Structure formats: structure tokens, C-alpha cells
């Protein structure tokens, strides 16, 4: 099964919100493997100012394409992230962080932020943060100018990322030179998504054309596909995400990924009441307040497509 997941515009960052294009989750599609959230910010001139906010039950994956992002969190991490580098924050039972552009005025920025849902055995662990300035790159079999994959998470074409993962997963940036065709190897027992980040691409599987992923959106590929051929006339940059279908129901609300309504209510209380569950982020005097909880009971998002 294939399906195009078109993005929707969402304000991000509280009172000083910037606009992002969100293509996951969607109604009837809570995740692709363990990937449960995909935001594209940019390309545009912007001034990112996302004040401290909390997370539970997930890993944040920050991947800038243009510009620099300063990450600070309740563990004391203070890192400036640049294109081609990876920030991976594991919230576990609870963590707060902020993300700011390094400049003082709007400047060119572009990137992707994703979440990975933590499985039950890892979601109550202590929070952690890691940054990777060097990631494995592997040349893919291709025509003409060549194709290179930078592996952010998991493994692709024999290249293994050093980033910590808790489920069978893959995340990689694929760069195609102009006039290039390449084959992306996929695990046929997994599901995958392809994001076109820039340029042009035509995709096919088993000799049949696939719908092109929209700008900032995702082409979803269900189980049973072992390879996708990608060809570009002018050159392209894509992101491949995928993994073993996630077998646990997810209750997602605001910045929290849990398993029940009660877990979300408890996290909301702990953030609002400053119980100490979410350590303060050094260098900040403001934080993003939690929105009011919905009046209806929160339930798990289920796959319907």
C-alpha cells in the first residue's frame, strides 16, 4: 500500500510561534514504524525561538538543513547544531528543552524535526541527550553523478548510525546528483516514508511508478516493498524513514506520548505545577505553558488506512 500524506500548517513555539508543515501524525496514520511525528520548518527567513517545553515517552530527532540551532535542556546540555549533524534527545519519563536560532535577526533556516515513540520497555527510563557531529555516509549503486546516504538512525546499506535507538528503525538523508538514478534498499517487513526535501524526484517500485512525495509531505510505503528506484533530473535531497510496524497503541497530546489518558493528565499537572519531574532549563526565565486539557477523554490513535 502506498499513500501520500500531505502536510498541514501548524504554529510552533507559543507566543512567538513560527510556522511548520506537519505531515505526521495524521488521522488514521499515527506512525510509520516508531516515527510518530514529522515537522518541516522552512525554507524561509525565520528567527526560531522555542522556549522550554516538556516531553515524555519519545525521542526528538533534530536535523537542520540550513542554519544553526542552539539546544538547551534540563540535563544541562547546551549544543549548537549545524547541517549534517544530529541531535537526539530521549525524554524517557520526562525532560524539558528549548531550541533557538543562534542569530538575533531572522535568517535563512530549514530543517526537519521528528519524534520516535519509545516502546514500553524504554519509555520510563531516565532522560538522555546525545549529539553526533559525524555520521556514516554510504554510496548507493547509481547511474551518472552518484547517490549518497547519510544514516541518522539505524542502518541502511550496511552503514550503521551511532545514535541510540530502542526499536528496529531507519532514518537517512539521500542526496542524488543531477541525472542520477539509484535504488533504495528497504526491509520488506517494515513500513517506510519518503520526504522530498529539495529538487525533483520520480519514484518507482517493481517497475511501477509511485506518486511523488509532496514538498514537506510524505510518501507512505507499506510492508512488502523491498526496494524503491529514485531518479532525479536536476538533483534532489530526500529523507527516508521507516521501521518495524509499532505494535503499541499511542495516546498523543501536545508534547506527550503515553499509553493512557491518566498518563497525559499526570504529565500536564507535573509541568504546570513544576513538581520537579521536568528539570528547569538553564538560561531561561520563560517557558511554554501547557494548553488546557480537552474535556473529552484522550484515547489511542489507531491505524485506519
UniProtKB/TrEMBL annotation:
Signal peptide range in chain numbering: none
Domain Pirin C-terminal: start-end pairs: 173-274
InterPro entries from the UniProt entry: Pirin, Pirin_C_dom, Pirin_N_dom, RmlC-like_jellyroll, RmlC_Cupin_sf
Keyword Cytoplasm tagged: no
Pfam families (alphabetical): Pirin (PF02678), Pirin_C (PF05726)
Free-text comment on the cofactor: Binds 1 Fe cation per subunit.
Cofactor(s) for this UniProt protein: Fe cation
Record key words, sorted: Iron, Metal-binding
Residues binding Fe cation, per UniProt: 53, 55, 97, 99
GO molecular function, one term: metal ion binding
UniProt xrefs under CDD domains: cupin_pirin_C
Domain Pirin N-terminal residues, every copy: 20-116
Top-rank taxon: Bacteria
Similarity section: Belongs to the pirin family.
Protein name: Pirin family protein
Biological source species: Demequina lignilytica
Amino acid at each position: 500500500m502506498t499513500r501520500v500524506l500531505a502536510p498541514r500548517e501548524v504554529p510552533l513555539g507559543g507566543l512567538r510561534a513560527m510556522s511548520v508543515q506537519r505531515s505526521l501524525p495524521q488521522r488514521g496514520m499515527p506512525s510509520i514504524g516508531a516515527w510518530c511525528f514529522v515537522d518541516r520548518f522552512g525554507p524561509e527567513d525565520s528567527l526560531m525561538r522555542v522556549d522550554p517545553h516538556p516531553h515524555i515517552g519519545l525521542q526528538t530527532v533534530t536535523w537542520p538543513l540550513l542554519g544553526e540551532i542552539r539546544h538547551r535542556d534540563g540535563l544541562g546540555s547546551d549544543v549548537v547544531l549545524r547541517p549534517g549533524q544530529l541531535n537526539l534527545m530521549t525524554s524517557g519519563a520526562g525532560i524539558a528543552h528549548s531550541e533557538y536560532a543562534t542569530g538575533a535577526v531572522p535568517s535563512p533556516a530549514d530543517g526537519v524535526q521528528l519524534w520516535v515513540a519509545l516502546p514500553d520497555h524504554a519509555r520510563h527510563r531516565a532522560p538522555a541527550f546525545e549529539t553526533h557531529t559525524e555520521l556514516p555516509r554510504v554510496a548507493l549503486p547509481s547511474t551518472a553523478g552518484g547517490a549518497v546516504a547519510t544514516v541518522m538512525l539505524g542502518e541502511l546499506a550496511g552503514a550503521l548510525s551511532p545514535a541510540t535507538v530502542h526499536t528496529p528503525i531507519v532514518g537517512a538523508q539521500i542526496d542524488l546528483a543531477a541525472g542520477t538514478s539509484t535504488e533504495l534498499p528497504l526491509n520488506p517487513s517494515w513500513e517506510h516514508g519518503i520526504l522530498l526535501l529539495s529538487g525533483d524526484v520520480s519514484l518507482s517500485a517493481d517497475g511501477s511508478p509511485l506518486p511523488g512525495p509532496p514538498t514537506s509531505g510524505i510518501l507512505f510505503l507499506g510492508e512488502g516493498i523491498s526496494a524503491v528506484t529514485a531518479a532525479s533530473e536536476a538533483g534532489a535531497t530526500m529523507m527516508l524513514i521507516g521501521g518495524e510496524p509499532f505494535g503499541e497503541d499511542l495516546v498523543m497530546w501536545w508534547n506527550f506520548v503515553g499509553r493512557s489518558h491518566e498518563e497525559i493528565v499526570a504529565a500536564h499537572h507535573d509541568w504546570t505545577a513544576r513538581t520537579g519531574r521536568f528539570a528547569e532549563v538553564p538560561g531561561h526565565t520563560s517557558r511554554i505553558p501547557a494548553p488546557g486539557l480537552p474535556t473529552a477523554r484522550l484515547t489511542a490513535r489507531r491505524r485506519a488506512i
